[in-house]
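This week, work through this protein record:
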Amino acid sequence: MQNCPEDRITGMQRFSKLLSDVKILRVTLMLILGAMGSIPLVLLTPPFQVPDEVQHFYRAFELSDLRIRAEVQNGISGGTLPDSLPELVKLSVHTTHDTSYTPYPVTPSPIAETLKLASIPLDGSARRFVTFPGSAYYSPLPYVPQVLGIAVGRLFGLGPLYLLYLGRLFNCLAAVALGGLAVYFMPVAEELVMVVGLLPMSLFLYASLSPDAAVISCALLFIALSFSASKRGNWKTWELAMAATAAAVLCSVKPVYAPILLAGVVPGLFRPGKAAQVIRSHAVLLAVALGVAAGWMLFANSTMTSPLSGG
């Protein structure tokens, strides 16, 4: 049955009313601009020309093998990976140096030349130990989107170049979506969240394999949830759970950012009768985030080797 003109008019009116909601409009703008600014970079940024992306590629692949803790050989952290991964890195960055770290500046890489590397098969049977001490001890939490993208590619038997792009794409989509949620939950000054979330460096990192994408987007989401709860004077259970998850992702990679977890404390303390609840809620958040970070560090302590000689 075809829709009658009245139904179409009603549908347009509902859509127009939805867009007239300033909050929804800002969230929509955040998602559109975030996607437009970052998704093209997934393909346009040459492989491994994001700082430390080689390290994160190896770490994400290792996690897709369901190996949570890295290995250590001859005092250097890394993992046993398919030979085709370091082969892709070497052919991409055009260097004779140790490809566990990409030297900068790298040489230009036209996309036509990069796409020729798509013919390299994964070949999981031929493996060797590869060093990546700069990311071997990183928590798996901020790698979840990248690992999912790589797992999908492996499911379809794709080569390492496609795994790189899928890992980037999933990381990008997750970061943009979390940024949209942050704008939605922020009770005031949503524009500040949009400005930080749409900075060129933020978009550049979204479109990479870097866990910094999760750090940025989770920090914005946590701040938005915290200020929303502070404005009301209480935390909802689901808000506390979501904020604790974002805080755990954030602090398990960058523990020095723990002061962000105090965002929203001061306004809440001045609400009559709410100070005790605010303190309890943030104590829970701190305990979860720092507990996860400390637990991971103890678990991964044996893989914490210095990435630089003499460091």
Notes: Residues 188 and 227 are 8 Å apart (CA to CA). DSSP finds 13 helices and three strands in the chain.
